[in-house]
Amino acid sequence: MLSERRLEVLRAIVQDYVGTEEPVGSKALTERHRLGVSPATVRNDMAVLEEEGFIAQPHTSAGRIPTDKGYRLFVDRLAGVKPLSAAERRAIQSFLDGAVDLDDVVGRTVRLLAQLTRQVAVVQYPSLTRSTVRHVELLSLAPARLMLVLITDTGRVEQRMVDCLAPFGETALADLRARLNSRVVGRRFTDVPQLVQDLPESFDAEDRATVSTVLATLLETLVEETEERLVIGGTANLTRFGHDFPLTIRPVLEALEEHVVLLKLLGEAKESGVTVRIGHENAHEGLNSTSVVSVGYGSGGEAVAKLGVVGPTRMDYPGTMGAVRAVARYVGQILAES
Predict the structure, then answer these.
(1) Straight-line distance from the first to the last Cα atom of the chain, in angstroms, rounded to the nearest whole number
(2) Tell me: the pLDDT tens digits for 105-127?
(3) 160 close to 213: Cβ distance less than 8 angstroms
(4) What is the DSSP string of 92-129?
(5) Residue 15 exposed, middle or buried by CB count within 10 Å (0-12, 13-18, 19+)
(6) pLDDT in tens, 13-62
(7) Which helix (H) or strand (E) holds 148?
(8) Are 219 and 192 in contact (CB under 8 A)?
(9) Is the distance from CB of 122 to CB of 130 less than 8 angstroms?
């Protein structure tokens, strides 16, 4: 375990390196920070931190920079989440309050996160598997063609066309709509298959095939890959950090194009607290020079998806964690009120 003084020296090195982009020397540390000890003692502390792998010397006669291990300790032990200013909170609220539907909420959230953190923002759409049914609408488009509209408690809307084997009248359609909603409204999507499995048997023989087709379309909607949708914004922000990536920015950009990789980075939605993955903690090789800060969001205190940012390991962790958490809280409030 490091002493409190050495933790303080590490904190000062992280703060200075994040702020100046320059390796940090002992003389600069004693001038900028009230460490209460001599430069010789700070040099000794830095030697111990380097030996323990918390800081490194990028080249001869240079100062020191934090390693992934150093950033990890900073985040775990040292960094409180930096609160947003009243002006920032008002800006978040007014920007998100103007959203008209879920797509707009997600799009605005991505732009807002990218602007607040000046990093790459990633927002996952609410997962259907963690949502509940708000309403199922059935509309007749032609005698043997219907539209199924599924609306979730998170404001997500899924539309599917249903081609029936035979014409289906308005009376039968109204009956199916009413019976279907009475069974599934307010229930979790994972419960729906069991709730509707015997529904066709309650209809007249000539209507059962159509009812079964409608239900099959509904159940397909629950398992389609589209539920794991992501939106990414602010990729251009990476160009400001070109020197933070050892060789080239290209591996990072390629990794960001793989949504499966990003979903794994964001983690499970049920992890509602702020998660920070630093450097080589990211399994994907292309993202070994980045950090990912993510948090779950949702209505009613339950996370239904994740949002977060990707940036270089030389990141303002307290500020980024505060921004990500604040935006997630506002998005959750919007979903709860929608």
Answers:
(1) 49
(2) 999 999 999 999 999 999 998 87
(3) no
(4) HHHHHHT--SHHHHHHHHHHHHHHHHSSEEEEEPPPGG
(5) buried
(6) 999 999 888 899 888 888 888 888 888 899 999 999 999 999 998 876 67
(7) strand 145-152
(8) yes
(9) no
